[in-house]
Write a sequence for this structure.
């Protein structure tokens, strides 16, 4: 594992990248599937109102997300970010990427989320196993999360 792969990553996301890069390609795909199975269900407030979630058109499969800020003290850089995703079970790659982002970013502060480099999907070592289009989808998810957090902390 090179230090560059986890540089500038929050602890939870760095640990995920380390887990992926320590495995063979086949085992990386298995780990991605495990992340797809671990993605939490949407809270009822979103299952009843899916229009509140933002689509991610870069993904080949239909995925929707929303970033919420726990802004009890005012929406700012120290607000805690909570992420919610809707991804179909029959799209395990996309759902796995959502699971990685959820586990790696949920509960961080807005400032920490905004500091995450945009190349996280490249650092997982999946380029040989997953199409560039699918990797771009993960980048699209991260980009939307960061935009939503930026907008909500600016308001």
């Amino acid at each position: 594992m090179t230090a560059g792969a986890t540089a500038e990553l929050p602890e939870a996301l760095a640990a995920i990248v380390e887990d992926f890069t320590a495995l063979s390609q086949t085992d990386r795909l298995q780990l991605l599937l495990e992340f797809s199975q671990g993605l939490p269900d949407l809270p009822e407030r979103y299952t009843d109102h899916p229009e509140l979630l933002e689509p991610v058109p870069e993904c080949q499969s239909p995925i929707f997300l929303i970033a919420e800020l726990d802004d009890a003290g005012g929406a700012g850089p120290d607000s805690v970010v909570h992420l919610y995703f809707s991804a179909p079970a029959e799209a395990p790659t996309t759902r796995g990427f959502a699971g990685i982002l959820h586990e790696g970013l949920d509960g961080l502060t807005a400032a920490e989320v905004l500091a995450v480099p945009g190349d996280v999907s490249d650092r997982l070592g999946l380029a040989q196993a997953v199409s560039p289009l699918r990797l771009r989808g993960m980048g699209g998810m991260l980009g939307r999360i960061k935009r939503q957090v930026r907008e909500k902390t600016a308001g």
The longest strand covers residues 64-70. The chain has a mean pLDDT of 91. The chain has one domain: 9-154. Helices lie at 3-6, 11-21, 25-38, 44-47, 92-105, 110-114, 120-123, 132-154.
